[in-house]
Write a structure and sequence with these properties.
Distance between the termini: 23 Å
Number of domains: 3
Radius of gyration: 22 Å
Helix content: under 10%
Order of helices and strands: EEEEEEEEEEEHEEEEHEEEEEHEEEE
Shape: globular
Strand content: 35-45%
Structural class: mainly beta
CATH topology of the largest domain: Protein Transport Mog1p, Chain A
Number of strands: 24
CATH class of the largest domain: Alpha Beta
C-alpha cells in the first residue's frame, strides 16, 4: 500500500491535553505526543453523495452514491469503520461481522469495498480484468478455488472469484460489479464454503442501479456519465492551474462532476490537505468545459484528475488521468 498522509504522530518534549467541556472530563493526549491531521477526504458540498457515504443500520447496508441497498443476515453489524480512501482510490465501505447468535460464523466476515477505476494502479479497465489480475497475483500460500467466472445475482451480472488458504483453513468468495466507474467488491470470508454459498444466496436481495454490470456501469440517466480522462484540451474552454502556497509531496486525486453547461458543480477530494483543497477548488471554479452531448442531449459528466505529485509505481500501470 502506498504511503499516504493521514493522522500521524509527532513526538515532542512537552505534553498536550485537550479538555472536553460540558462533561466535566478531560481527554489527554499521551505525554510527549501531539496528533496532527494530514491529507484527508473531503467534498465541496455536503448534499451530493460521495462513495464513502454508505451506512449500516437495521440489518441493511446502503450507499446513495452507488445506488446500493444490501439486506444483511440478521445480527450482522459494523463494529469498526474503515480507513479513508487511499491515494489510488480504494474505499472500504463497510466491514461486517456476525452477531453472537450466528452459529458457524465465528470466523466469518463481509467486506464491502470499491476501487476507483480512474486511479487504480493496476492494468484493469473493469471488474473482470481487475479480478483476473487478482487471480494472477495471488501470493504463493493462497490457492485458487473458484476460477473467475460470470454469475447472475440480483438480476445483474457479477464476476465471481474464490480462493482459500490451506494454512488458515479460510475461504474467500469475491463478487465484483462496476458502478459509476468503480469496481464494487463484496468479499465473503469463512471456514465453511456451504455457509459462504448461503451468504451468496442472500445477496440476491440486493437492489442495484440498472446500469451496473461486470463490464459496464459508466453512468447516465439519473447519474452523471462517467468518462475517464475527460479533462483534455479538446474538451476544455478555459482552465486555470491551482496555485499552491506550500510545496507538498503527495498526490491529490480529485473527482469532479461537470454540469450540462460545462461548469464544475461538485468536487470530491479523495485525499488532500486543507490548503491543497482550497487552491484546487478556487482553480476548478474557473474551469469551463464544452457541454457533453449524447444523441443530441446534454449530460452531466463525472471524471477524475490527479493533481500534485504522482504516486510511485507499484505494478505495471494502466494509463491514468491527465496530471497537472
Amino acid at each position: 500500500m502506498r504511503f499516504r498522509f493521514l493522522c500521524f504522530l509527532i513526538v515532542l518534549v512537552s505534553s498536550v491535553s485537550s479538555p472536553v467541556r460540558g462533561q466535566g472530563v478531560q481527554n489527554k493526549v499521551p505525554s510527549g505526543v501531539i496528533l496532527i491531521k494530514g491529507a484527508w477526504s473531503s467534498a465541496s458540498d455536503s448534499v451530493t453523495p460521495v462513495p464513502e457515504g454508505g451506512s449500516v443500520a437495521n440489518d441493511l447496508f446502503s450507499d446513495q452514491y452507488f445506488g446500493i441497498t444490501y439486506p444483511l443476515p440478521p445480527g450482522w453489524a459494523e463494529k469498526y469503520k474503515g480507513p479513508p480512501p487511499s491515494d489510488s482510490g480504494r474505499y472500504v465501505l463497510a466491514q461486517l461481522s456476525p452477531g453472537e447468535a450466528s452459529r458457524g460464523f465465528d470466523r466469518a466476515s463481509i467486506s464491502i469495498a470499491a476501487q476507483d477505476m480512474f486511479f487504480t494502479p493496476v492494468p484493469a479497465a473493469n471488474p473482470t480484468e481487475l479480478i483476473n489480475y487478482m487471480r494472477d497475483h495471488l501470493q504463493a500460500d493462497y490457492k485458487v478455488e473458484v476460477p473467475p467466472r460470470q454469475i447472475k445475482m440480483a438480476d445483474r451480472s457479477f464476476t465471481l472469484f474464490g480462493y482459500w488458504s490451506p494454512v488458515a483453513q479460510l475461504h474467500w468468495y469475491v463478487v465484483a460489479i462496476q458502478i459509476r466507474c468503480h469496481t464494487v467488491q463484496i468479499v465473503l470470508t469463512n471456514s465453511d464454503t456451504k455457509l459462504l454459498e448461503g451468504l451468496m444466496q442472500g445477496m440476491n436481495k440486493m437492489k442495484l442501479p440498472s446500469q451496473a454490470s461486470s463490464t459496464g456501469g459508466a453512468g447516465g440517466g439519473a447519474v452523471p456519465v462517467c468518462i475517464k480522462d475527460f479533462a483534455r484540451d479538446e474538451n476544455m474552454i478555459a482552465r486555470v492551474n491551482p496555485v499552491f502556497n506550500e510545496h507538498r509531496f503527495n498526490p491529490v486525486p480529485v473527482r469532479i462532476i461537470i454540469d450540462k453547461e460545462g461548469k464544475v458543480k461538485h468536487i470530491h477530494f479523495l485525499s488532500a490537505f486543507t490548503d491543497q483543497a482550497k487552491a484546487i477548488t478556487d482553480a476548478l471554479g474557473q474551469w469551463r468545459f464544452k457541454p457533453y452531448r449524447r444523441d443530441g442531449q446534454p449530460f452531466e459528466v463525472e471524471t477524475g484528475i490527479l493533481f500534485g505529485r504522482p504516486p510511485p509505481p507499484t505494478a505495471p500501470l494502466a494509463t491514468v488521468n491527465r496530471r497537472f
